[in-house]
Amino acid sequence: MTRTVFCRKYQQDLPALETPPLPGPRGQEILNTVSAKAWQEWMAHQTRLINEKRLKVFEPATRQYLQEQMEGFFNNEEIDQAEGYVPPSDQ
Fold first, then answer.
1. Can you tell me the distance from the alpha carbon of 22 to that of 29, in angstroms, rounded to the nearest whole number?
2. d(CA 33, CA 4)
3. Spacing of C-alpha 75 from chain mean position
4. Alpha-carbon distance 87 to 70, whole Å?
5. What is the three-state SS of 33-65?
6. Which of left, alpha, beta for 84 (phi over 0: left; psi -120 to 50: alpha)?
7. Is it the case that residue 91 has pLDDT exceeding 60?
8. Where are the domains of the chain?
């Protein structure tokens, strides 16, 4: 049986991630509050941000920026979009 969580992004019970996506307490919090669907959508958005903005993920400032964007994404707040990105449904 698939485990579910009450996803803070979608405000409904959805299938959960199988393992914490990050180490430590932060990963455990995401495991317990973010659905697999929301995590996959965040990973795609994060990849677009990294590519479009040419971010260097090894820099602490970049990691902090992505952490802030991730929190906003899961909390349905206004977040940065990759310039020039057009969602498939809008093409």
1. 9
2. 10
3. 10
4. 19
5. HCEHHHHHHHHHHHHHHHHHCCCCCCCHHHHHH
6. left
7. no
8. 25-81
- In angstroms, the Cα distances linking 76 to 2, 69, 71, 81, 83 are 25, 10, 9, 13, 19
Neighbours of 9 (CB within 10 A): 18
β pairing state of 12-15 and 4-7: antiparallel
Write out pLDDT tens, residues 35-88. Answer: 999 999 999 999 999 999 999 999 999 999 999 999 999 999 999 987 765 666
Can you tell me the distance from the alpha carbon of 41 to that of 2, in angstroms, rounded to the nearest whole number?
19
**Cα 84 from chain centre:** 20
- The amino acid sitting at 39 is W
What's at 16, amino acid-wise? A
For the chain, give the number of residues.
91
Report the C-alpha gap between 30 and 22 in whole angstroms. Answer: 8
